[in-house]
Amino acid sequence: MRDSDRLLSGARPATVREKLAELSAAAPVDLMPDFYGDGPVRQLEERVAGLLGAEAAVFFPTGTMAQQVAIRYGAEVTGRTAVALHQLGHQEMHEHRAYADLTGLRAVHPTGAPRNPTAAELTTLAEPVGTVVFELPMRDAGFVLPTWAELSDACTAARGLGARVHFDGARIWESAPYLGRDLPEIAGLADSTYVSFYKSLGGLSGAALTGSAAFVAYARTWRHRYGGQLFQQWPAALTALTGLERELPRIPDYVRHAKVIAGAFAELPGAQVFPRPPHTNQFRVWLPYPAARLNEAVLAMARDEKVWFAGGWQDTAVPGQAMAEVSVLAPALEWTARDVIEIGLRLSDRVQM
């Protein structure tokens, strides 16, 4: 991928020297590093709070830490030890159930359908919950989003139950076009929102929580208790600020072009695409070949043709069928539908050799 001239999915990884040059370019000559969260970290927090229309924001080194703090707060202010999570949500799939092991909370699953819960499903929960979590978009369901009306109604239903609403908004930046609302209006539906700085914006690492001043003050205290009060985090903060400046304005273009790319994928023999059209700039594609052969062919094409198609193929429950996630970023804007079809057919030929 690093040496490819053309990339369809993802972005070319930067070297350490390139990242250092980016940091140097982003930092004013007289900018001092942060010391326990001031300086550029505080600038980033103020920028994010403004973007999401929140009273305040607090930087975290990881999203996993941030989300545990958010749902802990919901349990404490409501006195309820249950939290409404989806079985495919990030807390269940990618955080080793930290909400249970570190915080002692229990999960209630409002629905088994591969999407966020509806208002009707929330009103029939068997027990009170302190927080209802919505993941925007739900990555492990295929980067799917509810409609604006569905999301609004579900948030209203959650509050009617006396619960807080928390948005797992790691990819909220690319959710706005589908929802048809700006970021402050979307985040305004929730009591707290988590955002990521590296998934779409190209930052080194880091996350933030936004919400009321009281919530953010609580989050700062628990960030320290969880070990997230680092001495200096200015490299992550500077790359996040750069991403907000350079990448955030381009995300609507990525979302629009993802529809072109996904439509072209669907023309390949035996291919399946979901969702179609994509809700964001990311979607899933299935091809009728084993994952090992597809990954070998992708690497061979990158070596021989300097073209990176889509990697990370995984076998599925259907024998001989593999799935990959496609992320449409800046390099993919140069690809036409015809490019995707022609190169996809060449990849299929390699798999069958």
UniProtKB/TrEMBL annotation:
A cellular component annotation (GO) from this entry: cytosol
Keywords for this protein: Pyridoxal phosphate
Domain Aromatic amino acid beta-eliminating lyase/threonine aldolase: start-end pairs: 36-282
MF-aspect GO terms: L-allo-threonine aldolase activity
GO biological process: glycine biosynthetic process; L-threonine catabolic process
Cofactor(s) this protein cannot do without: pyridoxal 5'-phosphate
Plastid in keyword set: no
Short name of any one Pfam family annotated for the protein: Beta_elim_lyase
PANTHER family the UniProt entry points to: L-THREONINE ALDOLASE, L-THREONINE ALDOLASE-RELATED
Family designation: Belongs to the threonine aldolase family.
Record protein name field: Threonine aldolase
